[in-house]
Amino acid sequence: MLRNRVRATVGVCVSAVVLTVVGLASTAYVKSPQQVASEAGPPAPDVLTAPVEHRVLTDTVVIRGAVEAGRTIAVSSAGPSGKESASPVVTKVMVGQGDSVEPATSLVEISGRPLFALKGALPVYRDLRPGAHGDDVRQLQKALEEKGFSVGGDRLGTFGAGTKEAVRKLYAALGYDPVPADPEGAQRLKEAERAVRDMERAWQDAESGTDRERAAEDLADAREELADAKAVDGPMVPASEIVFLPELPARVDAVEAAVGAAPGGTLLSVSVGELVVRGALTAADKGLVRKGQKVDIFSELTGTTATGKVTSVADRLSTPDAGAKGEDAGAVEQPAVAGTGAAGYTVVVTPDRPLPGDLVHQGVRLTIKAAASEGKVLVVPVGAVSAGADVRTTVTVLRDAGRRERVDVRPGISGDGYVAVAPLTDGALDPGDRVVVGVAPAGSTDGAGSGSSDVSVQLGNGEPTR
């Protein structure tokens, strides 16, 4: 019995020793994947390739721009001309943002008097009164005629009887009575008429030749004074009630006037002219952009696409909100500034066709075609071209079975990450050939960092993977 127990114990011990020896031996031959990888060393690099293309190569400049009118006008007023209102106040606002401003459109009302728009390039600088002469009177007459209010037989540039009647009709159409040029003009006119009548009677009653001659002279003077009184009597157009805009219709961009507020400063801003796009170029891009270059315009917000041309490139660096607003009453043009929120050289793009009005003040993307090859050329990614110590400029072509061949080329223009190349040996490089642009870790399939949109990784089996 005891002998059997001893034998069993000995057997267990022997088995344990055998298992331990086997385990130690197996560790010399069985390895983890990490250990295998570390002992194998770094993997062989895979080759990144890109196709040789045959196309027109363009260099483009992509910037942000803002759709704006050709010119922006700040409208202001000095308040009513009359002395009856010591503290002028806005009593009505007749237009809103986005409204169209037509000729003879009332914009705001200040202390019960209108501020309206007519077409003209010369800014208002004085009240336009009967008897006045000048280019501003000529501009008023032309605007009245265009609106359908005839100035009769008045000479252009002279505020005569026909212009008075046209002004009366204009104010009647606006719904207001015109302001008299002289509040006491009617009384003075009556006195002048009475004087003429008295002088006529005196002349008729004169008997002797001397008395009759003196009466005739007095009558002539009275008639001259009456003519002068008639010339200056009648309605006027106060400088505070009119604004001339160089182009109509215009668009209301912003309204700052508010009922009950004082009319000081800018009342509203309007845009005139066809819509253009302004952008800001960096110093580096400025050298690539010239007048006449084609531009693609794209609005991400509305999906609108359009084409245009560069019409001007500023020579001086501009900053946002540059320029000052005018202080005098009427309309003052504001300097155009690129609406990109950054300093730069302002570039103006004029669309080939008018842009829709809903794009005003919206940001758009401008793709300026700065340069292009003359016809189709062979192009490769910039990273495919190398210059060696032997002064050779080459590309490396991946041939069949993974064979690499250096091909001497002459580089041309570059753009958008590509460069035009011409092989020094005819037939050495063809469209569709794959050129080496770099290497990637084995197994990479994304071609990251290659700089090409059609880069492949050439694996060990000779099959490219995208």
From TrEMBL:
Could you tell me which residues belong to the region Disordered?
439-466
Task: Show the InterPro entries listed in the entry.
Answer: Peptidoglycan-bd-like, PGBD-like_sf, PGBDSf
Q: Which residues form a coiled coil?
A: 189-232
Q: Which UniProt keywords apply?
A: Coiled coil
Q: Where is the Peptidoglycan binding-like domain?
A: 134-169
Where is this chain compositionally biased, Low complexity type?
Answer: 442-457
Q: Which PANTHER family match?
A: HLYD FAMILY OF SECRETION PROTEINS (PTHR30469:SF15), MULTIDRUG RESISTANCE PROTEIN MDTA (PTHR30469)
Can you name this protein?
Answer: Peptidoglycan-binding protein
Which species is this UniProt entry from?
Streptomyces atrovirens
